Structure prediction request, 189 residues.
Amino acid sequence: MSNEELILERLTRMEAQMNAMNRSWGELAELKTDLGLLMNPAIRLLTDELVEVESGFQLEDFLPLLKRSLRSLKNLTYSLEQLENLIELWQNLEPLLKIGVPTLIHFLDDLEQKGVFRIFNKLMNLGNLQLLDRILDIPQELHLEDCRSCGPFGVVSGLRSPEGKQGLGVLLELTKALSRLKPGPEQAA
Prediction:
């Protein structure tokens, strides 16, 4: 091959490369035009949005936030992992809840139709809870460190006080009420 042919071949290759570059520049120019058309509305929208937060946002507030978030990157990563675990848990529980909640509603509806909640409400109104609260308050009022040992005569002398007499009366009433727990002849049958 002669020098002229080599030069012509190189020129042909260079011309092909230049054509490819021209096509690339043309595509870039087209991209620039498209982006230019999109940038104006985007900048207007961004400006409108920033106007809304202008009073609440200061650049000097942003820098400490950035520093703190960079220092807390490990905690943020951990939080995101936990959030992923929570989402996965929800995705696993959701099918169970779709089955379980209607079943629970049906069960509670059956209890309502049988009158269980009405009975429970009546029991609440009887004052049983107030009595139980008062009974549970008794141990808090006891002063066990003041207790002395006593014999049969000590018990008798202790029952002579007004508090002892009242306590004995309450004990007697409780004993009478407890007798109702034993089934009678009509209940045994």
About this structure: The two ends are 126 Å apart (CA to CA). The CA atoms of residues 120 and 126 lie 10 Å apart.
